[in-house]
Design goal:
Blueprint (H helix, E strand, L loop, with lengths): L12 E2 L2 H11 L1 E4 L5 H18 L20 E3 L8 H4 L2 H11 L4 E10 L53 E7 L10 E3 L19 E2 L7 E5 L4 E3 L8 E9 L9 H4 L2 H4 L4 H7 L21 H9 L2
Parallel strand pairs: 1-2
Antiparallel strand pairs: 2-8, 3-4, 4-10, 5-8, 5-10, 6-7, 6-9
Bound molecules: 2-oxoglutaric acid (AKG).
Length: 309
């Protein structure tokens, strides 16, 4: 292996939060041992499978063996938080503790969805999950402007510690293994230490990766700067993961929960979940009318009461 690590100290599957935080800081990822019971994991698996079937459009003849991005991201099934009885995963104390360790106290859920790697799926392209963040610049230097960023324009390089300032982590992913993650069935692959490089992987290059092999009910957690991808599934059963992505409160969330959640589902959310989903204001941001309110209310409620006066 190249880079700052040797096999001896790579992250290990553990329930020790201190070790998990340390692995996350040093290597850009960690492996949390058995957070869900076998019964609960099986319930989650069934929910995901049903949802995935439900989202399949009649006549859809997609090629299941192609990996993202070649087949355009349809590997992702939307698993809407607040809708499927899975909020305890997004709110799990270990997930929240690791998210707060990396991002600080106030966090939002950026996305909550399943990622199914079907038998025959090829390896995904290595990538980071905060590619949209402008790069730091030196005085007088011109970087890519915020509104001009695409995945393609970000700088590439080697997965070694940078020699100039880099961005902090603003996103973290908690990938729940709903089935066993093994190298043979497409476990997440990661490049240890790449979170400190400040650059992105070059799609034309190959890099040494580590397979995050964890049993069902456990989780693989990575700093969004860490280069990663799902592996190739050479097995005969789907590899099922559920990703809870958290971000700082000042960033746009990947999934638009405030728009997407049915009003009936919104009404059942706990305050903790409402805060996580982005209904809670942060420093006035996210308001509809009252900048002092804890939670935003739909703008149309105010407009219609103003009209009826
Ligand atoms: O499914 C996986 O193992 C990796 C998913 C991934 O690359 C991502 O969530 O950004």
């Amino acid at each position: 292996m190249t880079g700052p690590t040797s096999d001896r100290d790579l992250p290990r599957l553990t329930g020790d939060i201190v070790r998990l935080c340390d692995d996350l800081d040093r290597f850009g990822f960690c492996l949390a041992d058995t957070l869900l019971s076998p019964q609960e994991t099986e319930r989650v698996r069934k929910t995901v499978v049903l949802r995935a079937q439900g989202e399949r459009v009649p006549g859809d003849d997609r090629d299941e063996t192609l990996a993202w991005p070649q087949r355009g991201g349809d590997q992702w099934q939307l698993l809407m938080a607040g809708e499927d009885g899975l909020d305890h995963m997004a709110l799990h104390p270990t997930a929240i503790a690791l998210a707060r360790h990396l991002l600080g106290e106030r966090i939002h859920l950026s996305g909550f969805s399943s990622h199914i790697v079907h038998p025959g799926n090829q390896v995904m392209d290595l990538h980071t999950d905060q590619w949209w963040l402008p790069q730091p610049v030196m005085p007088g230097e011109t970087g890519t402007k915020a509104g001009d960023i695409t995945r393609e324009v970000q700088p590439t390089g080697l997965p070694v510690p940078a020699t100039r300032p880099i961005n902090p982590a603003v996103v973290i992913n908690v990938m729940w293994a709903v089935t066993d993650f093994t190298a043979a069935c497409g476990a997440t692959r990661l490049v240890p230490g790449s979170h400190l490089s400040g650059v992105h992987p070059d799609p034309a290059e190959t890099y040494d990766t580590v397979d995050a092999e964890v049993p069902a009910g456990s989780a693989v957690i990575w700093d969004a700067r860490t280069w990663h991808a799902s592996g190739r599934n050479d097995g005969n059963a789907p590899r099922i993961g559920v990703t809870a992505t958290y971000c700082g409160p000042q960033f746009r969330q990947l999934q638009n929960f405030t728009c997407g959640l049915r009003p009936e589902a919104q009404a059942t959310l706990s305050d903790g979940m409402r805060a996580l989903l982005g209904f809670e204001l942060w420093q006035s941001y996210g308001a509809t009318d009252d900048f002092e309110a804890r939670f935003a209310r739909p703008g149309y409620e105010r407009a219609s009461s103003a009209r009826s006066r």
